[in-house]
Amino acid sequence: MLKDASFSALVAGFIAVLVGFTSSVAIVFQAAQGLGATPEQITSWIWALGVGTGVTSIGLSLWYRQPVLTAWSTPGAALLVATHGMSLATATGGFIVSAVLITIAGASGLFEKLMDRVPVAIAAALLAGVLTRFGLDAALAAHADPLLVGVMALVFVLGRRLWPRFAVPGVLLAGIAVAAARGGISLANVQWGWAKPVFVMPEFSIAAAVGLGLPMFIVTMASQNLPGVAAQRAAGVTAPVSPVIATTGIATLLLAPFGSFGLNLAAITAAICMGPEAHPDPRRRYIAPVSAGVFYLSIGLGGGAVVGLMAAFPHALVVAVAGLALLGTVSGALSAALAVEKHRDAAALTFLITLSGVSLGGIGAPFWGVVAGGVALGVQHFRTAARPAP
C-alpha cells in the first residue's frame, strides 16, 4: 500500500471529501433538526455518517485494490427534510427498513433486476420533487437576507463557469465571509471535543416503513447507487457490485441507531478519485478513496465541532448553501424525468405530488408520488397495448 501512495491521490481524496461534505452537510443538519434531534444527537449523526463512510471507503478500496468511494445519501437526507410529523425513533426504524432492503438487494444479486422495475422517469421525478424544496427555500431566504444570498448566488454562477469542481465550497466560503464581516457568526458555543455516539431505540411502524423506509431505499438505489456503478464502469473499475452494495447496507444497518440514515456508492465525488487527477496509473488510484476515508473518519470523530459550526451560521446561509449545492442535481433529475415524451405525464404527477408534501394515512408525499406516477404510467401502457394495430 505504501508504495502505491502519492501526493496526487491524497489531494484527490481531500477534494472529494471537501466537495461531498460541503454539498450535503447543511441538508443533513436540517434533516436531523426536522426530526427533533438534540445537538448531541445531531453530533451522533455526523459521527455515524463519517465513521460509516470512512470505514467502508477504506475497507472496500483496500480489499479490492480498486477505487471504491462511498458516501451518505444526500437525496435520502432531503427525503427526511420532506418527511413531516415523524419522531426520531420512528425515523430510525425507517432507516433500518431501508438498510435491510439495500442489504438484501445487494447480497441476493437482485439490484439491477429490482431497479429495472422503477422507470427512470419516475425515479428522477421523485428525486426532483424532493430536492426542489431546497431550491425554493434558498430563493425565499433571499427575501430575508438579500445581500448574503445574493453574494452566494453570484459566487455560485461564477464558480460554475470558472471552477466547477470548487463552486460549492466557494459558495460556502463566500457566505461565511459575508456573515462574519457583519458579525453574524458566533463561535462561542462550538464544542471542539470528540464526538460521542448517542443510541436511539428504533420504533417500527407500517407508516414509517412504507412512507420513509421504502422511498429511502428507492431514492438511494436509483439516485445514488446506480450512478455510482455507472461512474465506476466508466472509469474501468471492476469491483463486484453486489458485495459492495451489501456492505453499504450492512454498515447502514449497524449504525442506523446512531444516525446513519443511508450509506451508498458515491458518484460525483467518486469521479474525482477514479480519474487521472488521482494518479496517472489506474492501478494506484485506490489510494485516493482510502485517503478520502481517513478524512471522513476525522470529520466523524470531530462531529461536535461540525454541529457547533453549523449552528453558528445564519439560517439563510445554511439554506442557501443547500439550495445552490443541489441546483445541478435538480436540473439533471428534471431533465431525466422529462426526457421521454410518453413518460412525461406520469413524471409530472410524481414530481408535483412529491413536491406538495401531502401526507395521507401517515404516509408521506414521496410514496404517493411514486404510486400516482406508476398508476399513470400503467394506464398509458395499458391503452397502448390495447389499441388495435392499424
Summarize this structure briefly:
By secondary structure, this protein is mainly α. 71% of the residues lie in helices and 2% in strands. The protein has one domain (2-341).
* Strand content bin: under 5%
pLDDT average, as an integer?
A: 84
Widest sheet: strand order?
1-2
Largest sheet: 2 strands, antiparallel
Content-based structural category: mainly alpha
| Euclidean distance between termini CA atoms | 66 Å
Uncertain segments of ≥5 residues (pLDDT<50)? none
Global shape: globular
Radius of gyration: 20 Å
Count of discrete alpha- or pi-helical segments spanning 4 or more residues: 17
Number of strands: 2
The helix content is over 70%
Tally of structural domains: 1
H/E series: HHEHHHHHHHHEHHHHHHH
List the helices and strands and how they pair.
Elements (H helix, E strand, L loop, with lengths): L6 H28 L4 H26 L5 E3 L1 H8 L6 H20 L3 H5 L4 H25 L1 H17 L4 H15 L24 H29 L6 H15 L7 E3 L2 H7 L12 H15 L1 H10 L2 H11 L1 H11 L6 H13 L8 H22 L4
Antiparallel strand pairs: 1-2
